[in-house]
Amino acid sequence: MEQILEVARSLPGVLVLSPTEDSEAPPIAWGDHFLYHAPDGVVPPGQPFATIVTKDYPDDTASRLDEPGRWRLNVHVGRARLAELVGDEPRDPAAVDTFVRHPVHGDQGWVSVVVPGDGAGVRWTPAHDQGTRAVHSGVPNFVATSSSARARSSGVTAPSTAS
């Protein structure tokens, strides 16, 4: 988790919010991380393009994040990209190091990885997406590699305005 956050914080235009007890955020958000495209350093309206959650939420327990050592990376990739990454087969939302539809927001184009590691192959790179995400130019991409044929050498990108 720290490696992902460190790289995210180093990328131009990315704002990482990490609420604590000293913040104005509600207690449920303490310890989680919210990544925004904010070149001016001001939180924009709307949702972040990625989150890292460290615990179960009342309506989101399928990943079993309350168990020791578990956390989940969530990235909005759009519906088409989500289908490329995870296909139609049901996947266990608690599986470690595996791309799955977000247990609550998958229908909105969110992908999740519980404790990502070498298997899912999630890593950050600067956006070089030949303009396919022009509205978010400068927003980082996740590049994903996986043993899955669907996810092999695939780019998991920041959100688009069209799904």
Q: Could you give the topology of this structure?
A:
Elements: H1 2-10, E1 14-17, E2 33-37, E3 50-53, E4 72-76, H2 79-86, E5 100-101, E6 110-114, E7 123-125, E8 141-144, E9 154-157
Summarize the structure.
The chain has helices spanning 2-10, 79-86; strands at residues 14-17, 33-37, 50-53, 72-76, 100-101, 110-114, 123-125, 141-144, 154-157. It is of the alpha+beta class.
Your description of this structure?
Helix content is 10%, strand content 22%. The chain has 163 residues and is α+β, with helices and mostly antiparallel strands. The chain has one domain (2-157). The strands form two sheets. The chain has a six-stranded antiparallel β-sheet. The protein is globular and about 40 Å long.
Number of strands: 9
The whole-angstrom Rg is 15 Å
Strands ordered across the widest β-sheet: 1-2-3-4-6-5
State the low-pLDDT regions, or none: 126-140, 142-163
Total of DSSP H or I helical runs spanning 4+ residues: 2
Q: In terms of quaternary structure, what is this? A: single chain
Key structural traits:
163 residues, 2 helices, disordered C terminus, single chain, 10% helix
